[in-house]
Amino acid sequence: MSRRFMKFCKAMNSQLLELPESVWAGLIDDLRRRGGGIREAGAFLLGELNGATRRVRTWIPYDDLDAGALAQGYVRLSTAAFTKLWAKCSELEMVVVGDIHTHPKGPRQSMSDMANPMISQAGHVALIVPNYAQGKVTPSDVSLNIYQGAKQWNSFFGHDAQRRIQLV
Ligand SMILES: [Zn+2]
Q1: How far is the CA of 132 from the centre of ligand 1 (A)?
Q2: Of the candidates 107, 125, 122, 105, the residue with the CA atom closest to the CA atom of residue 166
Q3: How far is the centre of ligand 1, averaged over its atoms, from the C-alpha of 41 (Å)?
Q4: Which CATH number do you get for residue 66?
Q5: pLDDT digits (tens, 9 = 90+) for 25-81
Q6: How far is CA 53 from CA 41, 125, 127, 165, in A?
Q7: Distance, CA 54 to ligand 1 centroid (Å)?
Q8: How many domains does the chain have?
Q9: Fewest CB within 10 angstroms: 53, 104, 105, 132, which?
Q10: Whole-number average pLDDT of the chain
Q11: How big is the CA angle at 106 (ends 124 and 98), to the nearest 5 degrees?
Q12: Which tens digit of pLDDT belongs to each residue from 121-137?
């Protein structure tokens, strides 16, 4: 690995996700409600990029973009859903700063999550919430996964995830 590439990776992995506390609480509530404790639910996180900080302003649930997104128990999005997503971003003058979805048990990415990033762009951040977002969920409960390209991710859990998710 070249030194330049290493430096690039280091910069990518120092990325922070910043969310107002009200956005975090609303987002987790929304995912919990949509999943109903029996299926996965997810959303794109919208906001702005500011250097290494990805600031989340709002979210768009997958099932608002594609009514069939959650039908199989795990998330599947149609191509039309992405067309709607880009239209919404341009309407709000925001960009996709990450995505989030729930899992039945732990917050670890599945093989399918790793092989199919929602946005195939190095630096993209994917959060996974355990237990279908039931109960109180804090940043240390989730995993924060940073896409490196070529189906590779760097994953952070517990304290390491919490350090990268700032509630403001
Ligand atoms: Zn998953």
Answers
A1: 11
A2: 125
A3: 9
A4: 3.40.140.10
A5: 999 999 999 999 999 999 999 999 988 899 999 999 999 999 988 887 677 788 999
A6: 25, 11, 15, 10
A7: 21
A8: 1
A9: 105
A10: 91
A11: 15
A12: 999 999 999 999 999 99
